[in-house]
Amino acid sequence: MSDDIFESLDWRGEPVDCTACTHRDRRLDPETAALPAGGKLPGRCLPLKACVEDRYAKRIQRFFEWNPDLAAGHLGHPYFEVRANAARFAPIFQLPRLMGDPDETVRSVLARRLPRRLLLKLRDDPDREVRIAVATRLEDADLAPLMRDPDCSVRLRVVRRIPDGMLPAMMHDEDPEVRVEIARRLSMDWLPSLAWDDSPRVRLVVAQRLSASKLHVLLQDADWMVRLAVAGRIDAGQLGPLLDDPEEEVRAIARQRAAGLTIANDLPPL
Fold it and tell me: How does residue 5 score in pLDDT terms, banded at 50, 70 and 90?
């Protein structure tokens, strides 16, 4: 959807007045202006398209794309969308003063640009989106404090980035989505420990990854999908109880394998 269908109002809900704008010398006439192939007009602004006074975020962003030289001068603007978009284009040395900004959108932009020594100070930010952005950029030991973050989305991002050796410390995370991701990455030395996890989704990942010789620990799992995964991978000589499993699909796979038949792997990917 084109953004020029929205009327031009400023952040206070008042009509934008180009004649009173500080940057009126950069204004193009919307009746005659023609955008180049790249869609940018450096050093220019265009009503309903690229305007720092407009409350519509896309128009503000486009203004700074066209006028990055003006970004630093708008870091103190009262409207958070202006500060956030200015922070995307301002010189990085100008950004630290916004670390205490009251709006999380602004701080999220900082989390994507600040150097490591300043990024560390945002690990305890009260907003989850800021902490997710921080977790996306930090590495190794710097992520350790976020392993105990109260928000599962932050911890999930951490699990995807921490070194393998740090994963066992999160094996008992309270959120099953986090434990599923751990099961996907955990080394084979630790993986059997998750065979008794409360979540069948976690145990299914274990059944799909664990070596065939160790799958006997899941032969009588309470979830039929887990047993189905076991039936398709366990050594044929260990199929035992799966040959008479109460679930028809599990029995069928187990009996086909016991008969030496090749089966198709229809299980979902890890």
Answer: low
